[in-house]
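Revision sheet: structure tokens.
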Amino acid sequence: MPIKKSQIYSSLWSACDELRGGMDASQYKDYILTLLFIKYISDLHKAGRRSLIVVPRGASFDDMYAIRHEDDLGDKMNKMVEKITSANAGIGNINVADFDDGNKLGDAREKKEKLARLLAIFSRPELDLTSNRVDGDDILGDAYEYLMKNFATESGKSKGQFYTPAEVSRLIAAVIGMSNRPADGESLVTLYDPACGSGSLLLRAAEASPVKVSIHGQEKDGSTAGLARMNMVLHGQDTAVIHDGNTLANPRFKDGDVLRTFDYVVANPPFSQKNWMTGFEPAADLYHRFEDGIPPEKNGDYAFLLHIIKSMKPKTGKGACILPHGILFRGNAEADIRRNLIKRRIIKAIISLPPNLFYGTGIPACIIVLDKENAAARDGIFMIDASKGFIKDGAKNRLREQDIQKAMDVFHECQEIPGYSRMVPLAEIDANDYNLNLPRYIDSSNDEVRQNLFAHLNGGIPDDDLRELDDYWQVFPQLRTQLFSPSVHVGYSVLNVPSGNIRSLILESPEFQQFRTAVENRLSRWMQQTRELMMGLHVGVHAKDFIRTLGDSLRELFHDMHLVDEYDVYQRLMDYWEEPMRDDVYLIAAEGWIFKTSNLTKTDKKGKEKITGWESPLLPETLLQQHFFPDEVEELHKKRLQAEQIQTELDSQEEEQLGEDGFFFQWEKVDLAALKSRIKEIKGDLLRAEELAFLRDFLARKTSVNELKSDIKTLETKLNLRTRQACDALTEDEGKMIVVNQKWLASLRSSIHEDAERVMHTFAQQLKILADRYATPLPEIEQNVVELKDRVTAHLQKMGLTWEGSQR
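Predicted:
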């Protein structure tokens, strides 16, 4: 049976469990990723697939696995890695892990056992990469990225620099135009990252290109550079060139005595590096990178930016760099550099990102988009404040799919959206002394709650506040007249119903029903369009192209619909894609539409396999049962509820009667035998009549529960067998219809309908807050205070007490 992508991830992460404790993630990642690399190139070689990587005789993963019980396993594994390195001079040094390190892996016995368990995990069927790679979709490359993200998360502050979140990398690839074909018809473009880390940013950028990309990267940390080289191979980029060394002091990509220039340059350099001048003198820089100014000695942010600009092709080069917000407004030397760059019109756009997005730091950052093409004609800088769009993901924030897509669309279409994006003229930037801090140009602050003093004094709801809900009134115009009437005071309205009834009135209104129907009609059209696409999935289909097509069509369909945000709807699709739809499509791409069942097994401690159930690759058992046997499912549901209800009552009574005055006090066990024995013992004892009646009832209900549980087990067994038989008898077309209609589209329909309901709830909540804010005018509040004060005073006087406040 084909393996799901999530199962590959799970197996790889379980390998990490073998190394936790002795070292942190920043260290054990080297072992896991090195083994993944060796397993990949070995399986590729074994399957006879073309690769530029040579696997020397005696140095494959199978060779490692064959010696897993030998005492000097760690030393021999090191020698095998060295053999691979020597045989592949082009990839450079990949000896990033010492498999014979006793300090990290333990004493000789512990080290051997730990490595043997690791090798055993990598030998699992789900990591048999000879049969689980789908052309066009880098399953193993994606698995590598999955591991890198989790390593970065576990490593904590200051140890996550080797990874740029994939979401940010995709956004950068989009804004520099990697998806555009070269205008000159070239079939190859060049891409460079001067601080490439593990290479994730390079790979995401290259992935977006429709033509072949020549990848170049430099990374200061030698171990991380080794990871980048392996990452390139895992993603099929065998020809990528990754150098190690200090880019600022010793750039490795040169043409003679000048820096090599590239079509595209991307980077996520270390923020605010204090020792950036180490190893060279910027004022005498051989490559003339600092002609626009020398950055401060204690902050290298602009040093990397200037290196990037110098590395871009003179007339057409494009680039993007992630840097902290401080570069937008800091003064002195940085202000001078910023002014010069703005005057040269190289900065095309600035995208502000959410805080706490990156693993090495929690400070907010931005993307500086650079473009030398037609720079002289540029008369403004496009600014996007994307800092509010994110979701919490553990201790970090993460861009959602909708946040990425919205920023991409707005950037490419140069849309100006109040509070989000704006084309800022250079003249305005000049007037602000070349300060690029986005709040100067885009007001994205949340509106403060305005308090209308007249309404607080006299009652009524300000019409100005109601006008702020115009988006809703455009869709529900009659609702406004149903909910509000003009007040005696001009410019104010009164609520016609209690605020607690607002929600039900909206829900029952014909206008909301029409809105809900309109959402359903659009969704039905999209489902009709996509059903054919889904049914047509086949072996070899590119899963990423498939989901991109689905997402584009869904956004387009809801693009012009009031109140339903196309990006919210898009997010519903992408959430479902993550699990379980993505696994399904990858399975179809690898093996086709498979519905035949197979046994699920579990190996016990003695190594014996035991059948624990069955599964169908694409169809969950519960869905099949609901499709084929709805009546039996309903019967089972009723019996389970009945058994649970009676059992809950019995548990409650048993707990009560175990007390000191209860019938079960000092009983060792309350079971059928004990109950029958006690009933027999007190039968005929008139003084025990109450206890006897209780025990007989308790016994009857306990017997009833046991019978119900027995019936349930019998029904479950029969239903399980019949369901498996029905699944195995499915034709391909029948199975497709169930997957597409009842699994995928039904789930998406339910999820997207929630957006329509959310519109109603949000609208009702806003109206209720507004109504409650001005529900009680100040004079009425004062009168209530006087009445309460008089009542308290009267009560005190009856008690013979006097409150000083009552005399005032």
